[in-house]
Amino acid sequence: xxxxxxxxxxxxxxQAQGLEALGFSDLPFVNRPFLAVQAALRVYxxxxxxxxxxxxGLESRLRQGCTLEELLEGLPGQARFxxxxxxxxxxxxxxxxxxxxxxxxxxxxxxxxxxxxxFAEREAPGNLVGFKLLDAIRQRIHxxxxxxxxxxxxxxxxxxxxxxxxxxxxxxxxYHQNNLxxxxxxxxxxxxxxxxxxxxxxxxxFTTLFARDAAAxxxxxxxxxxxxxxxxxxxxxxxxxxxxxxxxxLPLSFGILDINRxxxxxxxxxxxxxxxxxxxxxxxAKDLVPALRELRTLLAPGGRLVLGExxxxxxxxxxxxxxxxxxxxxxxxxxxxPVLRPVHGFLTGDAWEANLRAAGFSAVAHKPDTRVIQRxxxxxxxxxxxxSG
Length: 389
Ligand SMILES: C[S@@+](CC[C@H](N)C(=O)[O-])C[C@H]1O[C@@H](n2cnc3c(N)ncnc32)[C@H](O)[C@@H]1O
Hints:
The chain is of the alpha/beta class and 389 residues long. It has 17 helices and nine strands.
């Protein structure tokens, strides 16, 4: 198996090197260690999914061959989201056979996890947080299927919370890229005296990167206000405690902000912003176009919405990064639209552009243009979009 992981890495690396010839020379994170961790996480996610299905007693149904509906028999309704994602993902990864909607497990799949971790550790020492998070989820998620327990309560308990913080940290090789592409998109259009509003600031990893970058470029003084917001009071309190030290010199203000509630009632007063930035947040908007429309009303003339997102090459094809979130109701239980948002969760660059335009945004820029990159290198999953209000 390690041989094929090695082959995958070699292939990805060759594709990534071709990006420079396509004109994408400012993607320093697309290096061999990053690609190795990503390839290993994909295999680890597939093996962890199959192990989980076995632990839940679903192997015999899969050995016989079953549809999603048959697999779901006797399970709580919420199981549809992770299982509806796992079956096509495992088929894509060659772990299940699929024919006419029936999924079958054959032979003895390779399910050891240690060699995959060892591969990642060898290629990119010290980057194990994604594996740690996958282990934690698999260990704790059983009651989601057996008792219908809520995924958020199982996965955001005190023992896993620090792992999430580490995962969304800027030191995590496979998360840093999200912050970096968003930073590039945000900083290039900021006017002097800019007021910036961050949504879903969470661990504060983007805020910290933004402040460090501005300090290094000696542009901190050009920021008039940086308002850090999140839905979760725990994140906000932590940010208030820590960001003064982690982001010195950034003129911070703080507030709770829920993108699913009318913004006028959320204490922003008459404030208007030159940029609204959100890294991996807007895909949880319950009603995406109305939420984007609301955000437009907060932009000053010439202001932009900059969103960093995990971007899929194809809307209906699963990618490994989605595993983590299929147990979260905030991620799965959103209102769909047959054209603009046919699936929950991560979208393609084209789908984001269509939603932004439907909400009245214009001049939508893809930074970098993942639609071009993914034609050559489909495992490139990250991008930012900047849209004028
Ligand atoms: C994937 S994390 C983003 C991580 C963050 N950008 C960072 O650097 O740590 C998603 C964040 O969105 C927040 N969030 C979830 N639902 C939200 C909502 N309805 N409104 C605002 N923020 C929300 C979460 O609390 C979490 O901090």
